[in-house]
Amino acid sequence: MSALLPVVQPGIFIMVIERLKQFFVKRRILAVLAVIGPGVIAGNAGNDAGGIATYSIVGAREGYGLLWALLLITFALAVIQEMSARMGVVTGKGFGDLVREQFGVRVTLAIMTLFVFANLTVTIAEFAGIAASMELFGIHKYVSVPVSAFVVWFVVVKGNFKQVERFMIVISLVYFTYVVSGFMANPPWKEVARQISFPQVRMDRDYFLLFITMVGTTVTPYMQFYLQSAVVDKGVRVEEYSYARYDAYVGAFMTVFIAFFIVLCTGTILHPAGVIIDSAEDAAKALEPLAGPFSAHLFALGLLNASFLAAFVLPLATAYGLSEAFGWESGINKTFSEAPQFLGFYTAFIVIGAGIIMIPDIPLIKIMFFSQTINGILLPIVLVIMLRLVNDRSLMGDYVNSRRMNIITWAMVLVLITLTVLLLVTSFLS
Amino acid sequence: MPFFAGDIFVSEVHRKPVLDRAGEEIGKLTDITVGQGDPFPSVTALVVKSGKLTYLIPWDQINLFNKRVISVNLLRDQLSPAVIEPAEVLICRDILDKQIVDINGAKLVRVNDLKLGDVNGRVSLIAADIGLRGILRRLGVEARGERLLSVLRYRLQNVLIGWHYLQPVEPKLNKLTLTVSRQKAAQLHPADLAEIISEVSQKERSAIFGSLDVETAAEALHELEPSVQADIIDDMSKEKASDILEQMPPDEAADVLGDLPEAKAQELINLMEKDEAEDVQELLEHEEDTAGGLMTTEYLAFPPDMTVEDAIRELRLEAPDVETVYYLYITDDQERLLGVLSLKSLIMARPETLLQDIMRSPMKTLSLDAEQMDVAEFISKYNLLAAPVVDENMVMRGIVTVDDVVDFLLPPASRKKRRKI
């Protein structure tokens, strides 16, 4: 009997694998998994260093008072990301390509200038996030920033699309540390549910400002640029569109799902204690005496991971966008000699982003404010252009927005535009 | 035929008002339609928009067309709104800002502007602007940008791709494919280059040749049909042409010159270096399809009393300039052919041996007026790589190498196809 075992076992293994394969193929799970990636990565990259800071602050200041807004954000993000993915799949072109071809040089140049400056400042913020979170683990920024910058550079320059995408998906899974943090905080679930179902909307300035900051940090132009370019670079075909749609939806849902647990965590532990925080690293530090070192470390790890993922996505989104606008060769699979401008801009962004963090005493708050402002100006322009492109029958054929979709999206875009304009105005006034 | 002076960039006339015969504004120029199929697509009509109305004004109704004024021979009331057919190619809509890709589909750059110019009396799309200057022009800040950059000592130049390097236009273009990339042209194998060149229009071949270095041009020229070679040389500047001819083996240079008008050929020969010119001149005097016309005057000749050691040293010096090094011909001081020596027997001989002791003699020779088929049979029969050509006094005049006659020896199907347009 024992002699038979080694012979029988591989057979069983193969059978089990075959069964599993059949199961997956039957339910098209493999096909979906093959397409999933750009949407999930773009969505999670929206939860970057700035996003985590915002959600931490929202929880600490308002408790569960703003959780209801996450439902709206999920919806808005899902609708917008789906349109980006659809345009990428149907036209085979990035957002930069379409803007240049349909709107000409002037509009393209204006958008790309804003886009580059906004992304550069956000990239700086991501490396700042890496530096801050690593310092919580006792690693100095002069070590953590160059090392992580090199890793970010090396993976994209040397890796192929598949490897880079898998790498980023794995990073995206680390976000679940925040879910663990949220559960560990042991929130009063009934109270959470009550506050979501019957939100007590306050009409004061702080509450409102937090609300629009939260929207502004979750729906950012670089996510749409990245998603569309990545869908194109991946080569997703029109026949796979329905899977690409899932990808966008899953990405949007996961983004807000993670955000929910961040708010839950700081809302449960920091809010009742009345701790005032201004950043994500503040939140991690404040958690330590209240919830123990493990919680604090978990939170810091989440911030590191979030900053790291976005440090990939922002330079990539910029390099894609610029290459598309000016017609240069682009793609993660390309070598430096094949796509010199694409990889050149990618490299430059990492060098500048990481380099600025190495300068002592840089005014990070001002940089963040600057990036928020430019993104605020850019988002309405991008959304309006996106709606015009997605409704252009000569580009999209039968994949244009339906009437109902247009009513929803225009209404939503108008709300988003109003909110960002308000955010800009109030931040300038204060 | 409308009055059209100089070249115009599309961005300079785009959105400009179009006036009728009475000076009334019809509308704004929004696009230009071009014909299909030509290497340089010619302008067929202007698309003029006024409010919601679109007019299509045929090119032959245009009176003035320049940066300042666009006017039409008709009156506004005579025009009726038109519908643009889906098969029309509109250059602003379909070509401007489009992606340019190279032969392999790799993205290169976008079309920043388009240049219109005169081709055989028709206003046509002659080039795509891919430079910074084109972008500045589109933004309406060309002059300011130029001034600003000149302060930085940067001369703002037009970077244009002639339309002959681009695929013909067709409706619903998604991208434009380059038929040849300028940087890569010099790196291509001469035979491939010849193929690309034979696909472009006659006027532009010389332009491509102009951009090649002399050596590459000489090799590529060699791959083309003799009559095409002559056309290209004829179009080129005389200096460049003579430089290229110098680079070619004398027999091929003579072939090319033989197809040119006599006066032109003579002029080019006079511009060539003396040695090369003499060789070519001599070859030109023979009928093209005889041994005299086929032969080259570059060969290795040594005196009979030279030692093997000296001959090998000499061979090293002369080898770069001759087509064939496999045979050494032994001639006396009157250049009369005494014998022949293969490279193999030269290398195998002892260094101090005299050439006359190891040369083969007597030997088979060709006369200057031998027919080309006879020359081919001769080379084939004796399994030679080259055969010496002598005059009636046994004075050596040149050699015919096997590659000059191989086409006559092979069955028709495997013959090298010289490219013809």
Topology:
The complex is a heterodimer of chains A (430) and B (421).
Chain A: H1 5-26, H2 29-35, H3 38-46, H4 49-62, H5 67-91, H6 95-136, H7 141-158, H8 161-174, H9 176-184, H10 189-197, H11 205-218, H12 221-234, H13 241-273, H14 280-291, H15 293-326, H16 340-358, H17 364-390, H18 393-396, H19 403-429
Chain B: E1 8-9, H1 10-13, E2 17-19, E3 25-34, E4 43-50, E5 53-58, E6 62-65, E7 70-72, E8 89-90, H2 91-95, E9 99-101, E10 107-110, E11 113-119, E12 122-129, H3 132-139, H4 142-151, E13 160-162, E14 175-177, H5 182-185, H6 190-199, H7 202-211, H8 214-222, H9 226-235, H10 238-247, H11 250-258, H12 262-271, H13 274-284, H14 291-294, E15 301-302, H15 308-318, E16 327-331, E17 337-342, H16 343-348, H17 355-358, E18 366-367, H18 372-381, E19 386-390, E20 396-401, H19 402-409
Parallel strand pairs in B: 2-7, 9-14, 15-16, 18-19
Antiparallel strand pairs in B: 1-11, 2-3, 3-4, 3-8, 4-5, 6-7, 9-10, 11-12, 12-13, 16-17, 19-20
Helix pairs in contact in B: 3-4, 6-8, 7-9, 8-10, 9-11, 10-12, 11-13, 18-19
Overview of this protein structure:
The complex is a heterodimer of chains A (430) and B (421). With 430 residues, chain A is mainly alpha-helical. Chain A contains 19 helices and no strands. Chain A has one domain (36-429): Up-down Bundle (Amino acid/polyamine transporter I), CATH 1.20.1740. Helix content of chain A is 82%, strand content 0%. In chain A, helix 2 (29-35) packs across helix 13 (241-273) and helix 8 runs antiparallel to helix 15. Chain A is globular. With 421 residues, chain B is an alpha+beta fold. Chain B is elongated. Chain B has 4 domains: 8-91, SH3 type barrels; 94-182, PRC-barrel domain (SH3 type barrels), CATH 2.30.30; 183-285, MgtE N-terminal domain-like (MgtE N-terminal fold), CATH 1.25.60.10; 301-409, CBS-domain (Roll). In chain B, strand 6 and strand 7 (70-72) form a beta hairpin. In chain B, the strands form 5 sheets. In chain B, strands 2, 3, 4, 5, 6, 7 and 8 form a 7-stranded mixed beta sheet that branches. Chain B has a 4-stranded antiparallel beta sheet with strand order 1-11-12-13. Chain B is 36% helix and 22% strand. Chain B starts with 7 loop residues before the first strand and ends in a 12-residue tail after the last helix.
